[in-house]
Every structure is written in C-alpha cells, then in structure tokens.
Write a sequence for this structure.
C-alpha cells in the first residue's frame, strides 16, 4: 500500500517537509516532492500534489515557463522581488 | 491625442513591416473614442499605458514588467501568465496586465461568429489586444486584471465551448496543420489525433506535470507546415511505407509543359523561370539521388527515398504519397535555453495512426517517454537535453524501440548504439587459451 492512499498522513508529510525548508526557500519544483514519496511513481505524486492545490494547502507560482509550488501564502507573492 | 509621447516607439513604425506600434496606437484610439459604448471592465487607457511603459523600457534599457505569480483559474495550473508592472503610478492602466492562453481549435478553423464573440468578450473584459497565434498555437489574449480571469473563463467554457491552453511546466496546447481537411499530402488525420490527445491528456494540459514545458505538434506530411520538427518535444510527422504513386502520363505532361500541369502547382508563377526541366528541377535535386528520368519514364528507388516531399511538391498531379500511411515520431526539438537549439531526432520511423484503437501505438510511446522524463529529468530540463545527457540509447531502452538504421544521421559520426554483455552471445569473457590456438601473440 502506498502512503499516498492515506491522504491525511501524506498531506502532513508534505507540509512538514515544506515547513522544515521554509527558512531557506518557499517555492519548490515538482521534483522535490518525489523525495517525500520515494516509493511512488512520479505521476501519482504529481496527481497528489496538484490535488493539494485544489484543497488550498499549496499554491502554484509560475513564471510563465516554469511552475513551482509553495505553502499557501508563504514567501514572495508577485509584489516583492526576493527582498523579503 | 496620445496619452504619452513615444518618440522611440514611433521610430519602429518607419520600417517596411507592419508595425505592432501602429496596431496598439489604433487600439488605444478605439478605446478612447469607444464608439460602441462598451462598458470596459479594465482601464480604458490600458493600451495607452502599454505604449507608455514600453517607451520607458526602451529609454531605461530595462523591463518594467515583473513576471510570475498567478497561474490560472480555480482548478487550473496553467493558461494564465501573470504580468504586473513596477510603475503602477505612472501607468495605472497596466498595473496588472495578465495574458490568457486560449486553446485554438484543431487546424485553426473558425467562423466569423466565433471570432466576433471572442473579441466581444475580450473588448469588454480585457484590453482587446490579441496575438493570433502564439508559438504554441494558442489564441493569446494580452492584458487583463485578476478579477476578470474567472469571469472570462466562465464565459469561455459555458458559452463559447472553449478551453484555456497550457503554460508553465504543463503539456502545452497541442497544435497541428490542417491536414486531411484540405491537404492532399496529408498522411494521417492531424486534427483527429490532435483533438484526441488534447482530450486524453487534459490533466497534463491543465496542471503542472513535468520538469519543464512539453510540446506536441502534428504535421500531416514532411512539408512540416507547423514546423513540428524544430519546435516540439515530440513531433508527429506524416509519412508512408510503400511507394510514391507515379502517373507516368502526367509526368510527361509536365515535361511537355502542358499549361494545365504547371510546376509546383503554379505556386511560383509570378515570374518566368524558363522552361521546365525535369532533371534540373526534380531528379537532380532529390537528396538521396534515388530518381531517374529516362526520357519517357520516371523511376524511383523507393527503398532509398527519405520522403522529403520535393518531387511531389514540384509535380503534384503526377506524384502522390503512398497508400500505407502513418507517422514518424521525432523527439527533442527545442529553442536554446540550457544548450543550443536542437532539431528533433528520429525515434520511430513509422507508427500506425489508428483511431480505432485510440491511437494505442502513439500513446504508448508518449507515456513511456513521460515516465522516463518525469523520473530522470532535472528541473527546467527539456526532453532534448535529457536525451543529450543520458543518451539516445537510454531513450530507446525506455521506449522499447529497437535501434535501426533510420535513427543514424551519418554512419560513423553518431555511434550511440553500444552492445551490452547480455545481448552478445557468449558475453564479453573469452577463453584466452582457446583464443591463442588461432592467434599468435
Ligand atoms: S504539413 Fe503537409 S499535410 Fe499538413 S498542411 Fe502542410 S503540406 Fe499539407
Ligand atoms: S520524396 Fe524526396 S527523397 Fe523521395 S524520391 Fe522524391 S525527391 Fe527523392
């Protein structure tokens, strides 16, 4: 059984991981989440991470060409340019 | 009267080409006059301020756009590209000036009613400025504010039967040539395949799925009208397996310069190119030299034909594509970002394009490539760069495609096919005593 099947547990693993890194960075690539779920297929992880955006736990940040993920409300929004 | 002086931009209008500056000025004026009485939902002077901020950027030699942030409407992770200006006081009309990508219909077929309704919506809720079409193929709507995004999306999806396209690390809007709907060269129904895959991969199109962008493009034949070979991570280019169909009588009509048989279907008629010479214009230009004209009959050695389309383009009434058609799949084309620009490399010379089994042969290759790239691709690494980094042989392994001569560009210059021990009978170990029986030291 994959840990992704336990939504609550898996969500906590994601938020814990992001909280821990919050000091250094607030925006993450999809790749980074593979490390949280090393035993799951990238496509499954992708589906789960995107569903966390729909749930409002995470949010997207995009430059137009690349998309990143962050905890909702964390880090720079459009108004600042890396000066917080 | 223009709101801002734009001497630097004005200069751009002086060249021989149609100018976007003139277009923007015209649109600014239309909005200022507003003869149709539109209740603009974003500032009426957004186009004036767009010109103003661009002029300032020229003056300063730096951009005044901050990019990033917003990605889409609720539930979508793409289709909207956020743009904010860093001079909102000087140019309030473009404080937020987001781009929306709208998925163009397959083959870019519109009726005027559709175009009018899109423009009506965009004049009302956006700047009225469009880019038809962006390099992904989308209809690009340039310039609106955040509160308008959901409203526009609702109208598009509920009343115009229209969806947003892809952006960011998503599958980008698939795009195709008009294919069999109008073109006799088409080797498969590009619109059907493009439409099918757009629906099949909705999740990848609307939500980020990959290390970076990923583009599909579909060309019905090697003439490559959407330039898939240069612009798509995966290009699907129509081809045929059997022989070019030759109508020898028609070939002779070209040679006799029958006016009903103009070379290149009359495409270059505007100038006198002298009499048609089949050897100079057709057989000598065949890139593989596989054609011969003996004065009466045209001969083609089809096993050496690379399907370049040249002869068919020159004599379309005499030569036709073969009957057993499908597509070639090429991978890895891209513009320069990490490495230089790359053209696609041939992966599968012939793949059947079969709607009856939901294009199984095509989707199998797509998904095996995605699995590999999602697992191994570095952030912001295009498929073409991963192929360079891990090798074409690795790509063959993950797709389960056997190495074949068509994948080799020039013999001995790109020898990326290496044997592995388990593929060699007897392995790499040898019995030195047995060897010495036949070979001296
Ligand atoms: S790519 Fe080929 S099939 Fe498609 S429109 Fe161009 S010539 Fe016709
Ligand atoms: S399609 Fe190109 S390669 Fe093939 S016979 Fe014609 S000119 Fe030669």
């Amino acid at each position: 059984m994959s840990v992704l099947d336990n939504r609550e547990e898996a969500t906590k693993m994601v938020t814990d991981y992001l909280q821990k890194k919050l000091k250094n960075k607030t925006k993450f690539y999809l790749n980074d989440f593979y490390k949280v779920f090393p035993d799951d297929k990238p496509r499954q992880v992708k589906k789960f991470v995107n569903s966390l955006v729909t749930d409002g736990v995470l949010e997207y940040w995009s430059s137009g060409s690349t998309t990143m993920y962050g905890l909702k409300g964390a880090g720079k929004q459009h108004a600042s340019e890396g000066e917080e | 009267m223009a709101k801002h002086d734009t001497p630097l931009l004005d200069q751009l209008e002086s060249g021989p080409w149609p100018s976007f500056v003139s277009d923007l000025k015209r649109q600014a004026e239309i909005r200022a006059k507003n003869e149709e009485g539109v209740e603009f939902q974003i500032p009426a002077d957004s186009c004036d301020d767009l010109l103003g901020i661009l002029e300032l950027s020229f003056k300063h030699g730096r951009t005044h756009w901050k990019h990033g942030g917003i990605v889409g409407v609720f539930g979508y992770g793409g289709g909207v590209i956020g743009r904010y200006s860093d001079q909102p006081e000087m140019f309030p009309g473009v404080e937020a000036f987001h781009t929306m990508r709208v998925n163009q219909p397959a083959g870019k077929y519109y009726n005027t009613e559709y175009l009018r309704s899109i423009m009506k919506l965009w004049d009302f809720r956006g700047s009225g400025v469009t880019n038809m079409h962006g390099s992904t193929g989308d209809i690009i709507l340039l310039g609106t504010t955040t509160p308008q995004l959901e409203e526009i999306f609702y109208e598009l999806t509920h009343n115009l039967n229209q969806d947003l396209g892809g952006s960011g690390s998503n599958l980008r809007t698939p795009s195709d040539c008009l294919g069999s709907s109008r073109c006799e060269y088409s080797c498969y129904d590009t619109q059907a395949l493009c439409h099918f895959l757009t629906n099949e991969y909705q999740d990848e199109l609307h939500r980020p799925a990959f290390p970076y962008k990923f583009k599909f493009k579909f060309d019905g034949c090697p003439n490559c009208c959407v330039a898939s070979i240069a612009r798509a991570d995966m290009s699907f280019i129509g081809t045929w397996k059997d022989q070019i169909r030759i109508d020898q009588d028609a070939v002779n009509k070209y040679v006799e310069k029958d006016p009903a048989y103009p070379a290149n279907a009359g495409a270059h008629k505007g100038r006198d190119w002298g009499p048609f010479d089949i050897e100079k214009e057709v057989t000598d230009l065949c890139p593989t030299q596989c054609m011969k004209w003996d004065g009466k009959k045209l001969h083609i050695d089809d096993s050496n034909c690379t399907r370049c389309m040249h002869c068919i383009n020159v004599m379309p009434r005499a030569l036709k594509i073969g009957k057993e058609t499908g597509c070639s799949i090429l991978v890895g084309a891209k513009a320069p970002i990490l490495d230089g620009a790359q053209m696609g490399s041939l992966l599968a010379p012939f793949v059947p394009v079969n709607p009856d089994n939901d294009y199984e042969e095509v989707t199998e290759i797509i998904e095996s490539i995605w699995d590999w790239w999602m697992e191994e691709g570095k952030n912001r690494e295009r498929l073409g760069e991963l192929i360079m980094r891990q090798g074409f042989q690795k790509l063959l392994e993950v797709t389960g495609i056997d190495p074949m001569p068509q994948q080799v560009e020039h013999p001995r210059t790109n020898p990326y096919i290496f044997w592995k021990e388990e593929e060699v009978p007897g392995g790499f170990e040898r019995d030195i005593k047995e060897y010495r029986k036949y070979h001296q030291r």
